[in-house]
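To whoever picks this up:

The parser on our side crashed when reading a file containing two proteins. I've narrowed it down to the boundary between the first structure block and the second sequence. Both blocks are reproduced below exactly, byte for byte. First block:
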Amino acid sequence: MLRTPKGGADHGTAPTGDPLVSIGAVLNRLRDEFPEVSISKIRFLEAEGLVEPRRTPSGYRKFSPEDVERLAQVLRMQRDHYLPLKVIKEHLDAVARGERAPLPGPQRELLPEGSWEAEPGLPTAARIGRAELLAAAEVDADGLAEWESYGLITPMPDGGYDAESVTVAKLLSDLGKFGLEPRHLRAMKAAAEREAGLVEQLVAPLRRHRNPQTRAHAEETLKELAALSVRLHAALVRSALGVHQQ
């Protein structure tokens, strides 16, 4: 059940006549069912187009009851069905248009909206063998061995590689065509590890929680923070180089 906040601090009304509420009031309504939800989470969902609150002349967000219910639906679909935000948005938009839109089944393997994607045409299985990685990255065994020696690619205990290693290998291969050698890229690896360490610190308390839903929320938060970190890193590199995204 969504909780209705007490008090009259919020101003404005929705088309239904119900009062519009602030983001803090939305947080209070949602926390009974979603104890780990945060203002940053609500803002992230807004940035991804899942909800469109009104704005006051001074720029403050104001949410209608429909906005709050839509946020609750998004959070339920993430929690209960493991759906990525893109799929959730398409489903809710279809329902809002009056279309019959059966709820998609669980899609644990799909990446969340805003996350990085595998390179087109590359294998996307959970793990692949050495020969497949060599073929996907178009590199010889010596080249792969050099990447591994610099810690840019790390095989799994069974000798295979995860899907993300395929993307990394292809990018390393493409950068190599411009004369960037593995020794040049160690700084990028170190920066990525520092970013990962910061993200892991933020979600560590949630991952240790006894509540399974809280631990599941920790994994979702981890993905969102990773996606935001990737976008920030790309934007900072473009800014430093004076390159504007088209």
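<<boundary where parser fails>>
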Amino acid sequence: MKTLRTRSMAKAVIAAAIAATAIGGAAVAQASQDTGNGDHRTADTAVADAFTAVDRNTAWQLTGRLKLDFPTFHTEGIAFTEDHIFLSSVEIIEPTVKFPSPQGGYDRTAGKGKGHLFVMDKAGKLQKDIVLAEGDMYHPGGIEFDGTNVWVPVAQYRPDSSSIVYRVDAKSLDVQKQFEVKDHFGGIVMDKQTGHLIGNTWGSRRFAEWGLNGKELSTWQNPDHFIDYQDCQYAANSKMLCAGVASLPQMPAAGGPSAKYDLGGIALIDSRTHATLHSVPFQQWTADGRVATRNPFKMTADGNHLTMRVAPDNGGEGTDTEILTYEATVTPAR
């Protein structure tokens, strides 16, 4: 009987581990991914290593444009799987309005809107529009694909509010409401080393780490004021690669504070030490004058060759959204 009981316990432990992997992502599968050219590092490690060689003089080339032929509204985050492209977006029905002074802990009205997770094939053809919203929470943020699931935070469109974290199966497209959290969280990353989720608040001024049940495990203030992170991805060994933008005032001769300049940038962050390990400005703009790292962003690496995909222009604002591809080859430090 003791042997049977021991075997039963072992089976239960194995089953629990398999279930945790299914929910938390494909970290084990990702560990053996070949990045090409005989490079057997994980894709996450390859992009982290190559990015540390990027500087403000890196020669990025625009190599691809994928025009989307459906209304995309205000684009927020992007993720790529073997079969699909996922794009999160917020459709504004009633804009928020700033209060003269805070009311009920808020600085503005809730407004009204609809959150979208667009599912496309690799040619950019819309296959499904998944609506994600509940009450005043209708603003999807930056998204993450962990190898199995796409994680999507949907928040109120105002700071110091509340959010829902959704899990979307990347193959079946089944949607699961994972948990609710206090505060506006506009981006999310799955740490494949710990199985935890990490989110960033309005303006990325604060980070929080949760278990998959939504229990907050830690929180910290962002020590870096370079840019506001909009969309992030896991980058090996509990690091995350984040891109975004900061709207900064111009000098008087260029129009003064009312004439804003958008500074784009990318940063590699250690979620254990909370330090910014490497950060660079990104000096590429669209024909409509938007900096390329304005919201949706993901990067991959093949050896020392980096590929970045972004979608900075919004559909419904007199422009069509395009997924732009930029590429660069870097020389790692010896």
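After patching the parser it read the second block fine. The chain has a mean pLDDT of 88. The two ends are 60 Å apart (CA to CA).
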